[in-house]
Amino acid sequence: MRSSTFVRLCLLPLFVFTSAFLALPLARLILSSGSGEAGWGIYQQILTTPRYTTALVQTVLLSLAVTAAALAISTTAGLFLARNRFRGRGFILSVLTLPLAFPGVVIGFLIILLGGRQGLFAQLTDGKVVFAYSMLGLFLGYIYFSIPRVLLTVMAATEKLDPNLEEAARSLGASSAQVVRDVILPGLAPSLVAAGAIAFATAMGAFGTAFTLATNIDVLPMVIYTEFTLSANIAMASALSIILGFVTWLLLVFARGFSGSSAAAGG
Amino acid sequence: MTLTLTSVSKTYPDGTVALKPTDFHVAPGEIVSLLGPSGCGKTTLLRIVAGLETPNPGSQVKFGDDDVTELPVERRKVGMVFQSYALFPNMSVRGNIAYGLKMQKLPAAEIDQRVAEVVRLCKLEPYVDRRITALSGGQRQRVALARAFAPRPRILLLDEPLSALDAALRDTLRDELAGLLRKFGITALFVTHDQDEAMAIADKVAVMSHGTVVQVGPPEELYRNPRTRFVAGFVGHAVHLEGQVAGTTLRTQGGMLTLPRDGENCEVFVRAEDVAITPNGALKARVESSVFLGTHYRLGLSGITAGILYSNHAGLAAPARGTDVRISIDPSKLLLIDQSGATP
Amino acid sequence: MEYSRAKALQLGVTLLTCAFLLVPALQSVLAGVTRNYFIGISSGFTLRWIAEVWELYAHSIMLSIGIAFACLVSTLVIGVPAAYGLARNPGWFSRVLEEFISLPLAVPGLALALALLQLYGSVKGFRTSWTFVLVGHVLYTLPFMVRSVLAVLSVMDLKTLEEGAASLGATSWRRFWDIVVPNAMPGILAGALTVVTLSIGEFNLTWMLHTPYLKTLPVGLADSYASMRLEIASAYTLIFFIIIVPLLMAMQWASQRAQRIAA
Fold first, then answer.
1. Is the Cβ of C247 closer than 8 Å to some Cβ of chain B?
2. Which of A95, A215, B7, B26 is within CB 3.0–4.6 Å of B21 for a Cys-Cys bond?
3. Per-residue model confidence as pLDDT tens digits over C114-130
4. How high is the ipTM of this complex?
């Protein structure tokens, strides 16, 4: 067997699997989005129906807020952990990175334990503070699973920063705030863009957390889910999925082009 | 095992001609070096012999009487030492050396015996159980050689086997490699761009340029009788002496030179070690540069040929820059290269 | 002093974040072993809830472990040769293929599940079998395996190593087993742990693909959050943590090791 034949043979299982279970289903999804009563006009319908546009805008705004917060928190903590060595650092690092692959439902439940009707805050305030099922609860849940991802990216990037740059800036008389602004943040910028894009994409598509918390909030994944299961409006669910998928994919491609690192969503 | 190449050529899919049709012969037990600058086709030729590169249709590669042109590398029974050594990092030294024997499905006892034999030959006893990453450059080179030689290949092929080493080590390991190849007594073909390396190791050197073999011969012959300008320039850095040839004389800018024979249609070349500074020399030159190199001074001279002519001057002191000196060249050291119908 | 104030602020943010992530997790652990969560720890500890969870959801847990294992085998069989094929064949075709199989990382699981349901939902024997859920898991985890292996393979001089083996008489198949697989092992290990961890925790696709007889562990979790008392939901979460946390730790260790090699 010629070695090029063998190499091609190695790609065959992947090709077959991906064709059957990714390419064909996605093609079918696109076709069925146009097979409703409105035909391909369904995309126009989405843009003119307040329920859908509100959900879209709401999801984007929420995701933007989550991205900003996760970036701020994780960069602060990540820089601190990367630049300081102290007892308990390893423990803090594990706590901050372990939720990496927690499913969204579990995170939703953890938010309920914090801010639900029988949650920690409710117990401490005699039932006055309940936020789990509001936008705030959703926001906290999304932050919960974004922090580990962003933190790992920031720390990896910090370790690659040349410490000489910082020392050079110091030797030229820069204060520590100036060093952060002029040397560290510009150096981290590509990674921050990548991490931010992942956080945004994950928040856009997060279903598990929304499923446990957002019974009364219209975020896009929940709208898709109700269109599909309750209204049995398959065309609309498909069209919304395509919009959601396309937006997140485009964003990650852009971010990867910017930073060169691989991005993984989930949750 | 003899190696015979008949009109072997290689054109890449993008149209680049890496090797023009070449005929080439290596006698059994002979160690032949392919010498040339990068891009001259020497590595392509070696890889075609190995079976790692497919030559153009019409090419023929024979090991003895066996036509191997169509055989893939894994069935050619060649031993190959790669430039980067390509040692398997997942195996120990022993694992690497035994790998080719395992591929031949030999019984374990036989494999062990052969590995021990080759390990002894290559003086690798202290390292057999080490990981590849724990070896120095020189040790890696010996392992690569042992691995290629262990399965008793028909021909041993070496691709720039010394170029991955530090300059300081290279000279010692070059002599060591020459010794080992002699001990192996195997037909070997090795590629290098370093003329010292080629001369030190090979019985016969094939100088290549622009996809063709321009001259083949023992090192001494190449050095003393280069047949083309390229060989003269590449082997021993001979410099072209410009001027008009008339019978047995050459008229240069700096004066007249006597040639060893009739130089009609010839170009005249000379090497730095044959250019002597003598008070009553026939040629006049001006010293443009002077560098002390320990054993000698290297003087750059103008006024004889269009460029700079170098002289290796062995005296205790050198003439200063800007002074005029007299030069003499022993006629027997001049290289005459016939230009009638010559290749570049 | 400005310098130490900045440091104190950083430490404060770090610790607060830590508390935010840790406190609810600890709450759920505690609630899972507390006799009555509303009375508090003073009501005493018990393993009753855990036993009840086991009775109710043991099959979900076993199903998840089984699917994770099958998913691992599938991603190994498809992903490792594929990563090798991509590494040996670097060209536009490979880049497009790699980009395409990575779609499940970007496109939300919900959309993928809808796509799968619409194409194969009517294929009776398949739709109701556990292999339908498996397909979703393989789809989602495969890019992690391929990328992890590819990252390690693309930093070694694979072509020359293989030429070395070929010159010693090794066929394509032998080279794959003797050279490619052993040297890709750190990437394979990291990929394998990632695949198992993600498969056990996968909810987005699974919730859409599962049938009432095929509840995986996270589907069971969602079920318990909706319909069981807090102690049982917590106990179930505790069991999930016990399974997933060691896997996560191993996964991070292996990924860092593979990244060091690939760097």
1. no
2. B7
3. 999 999 988 888 888 89
4. 0.89
